[in-house]
Design a protein that fits this description.
mainly alpha; globular
């Protein structure tokens, strides 16, 4: 586990820090975003082409999916910004999984063409 203090000291990346708070319920909430839209803007580090209001609308679902004891243990407090960071990390994870799966499928397709 990374603490807020470690994160602020640069001992872990933004993604590493917020990834520890992404739970299955958070992934489910964020998966309501059209995956194609996420893929389209996934080359951006921060998904800023998706309006902040959309991320804000996910706050209740994200908040209910996060382990509050883990937040406290990490020295993190809850705020709308915390919710957005966790939601965007979940989006990164969904995009990574989608791309990985598509790459696997492409490799299988190539193998069968040989």
């Amino acid at each position: 586990m990374f603490t807020r203090k470690q994160y602020m000291a640069g001992e872990c990346s933004h993604r590493e820090y917020y990834a520890q708070f992404v739970a299955p319920r958070v992934l489910a909430a964020v998966s309501s975003v059209d995956v194609r839209r996420l893929i389209k803007c996934s080359d951006q580090e921060n998904f800023n082409t998706i309006p902040l209001s959309h991320w804000d609308q996910l706050e209740v679902a994200v908040r209910s999916g996060v382990d509050r004891q883990l937040l406290r243990a990490a020295g993190e407090t809850w705020s709308p910004a915390t919710s957005v960071c966790i939601a965007k990390e979940a989006a990164h994870q969904l995009v990574d999984a989608y791309k990985e799966e598509n790459q696997r499928i492409a490799c299988l397709a190539d193998a069968f063409r040989l």
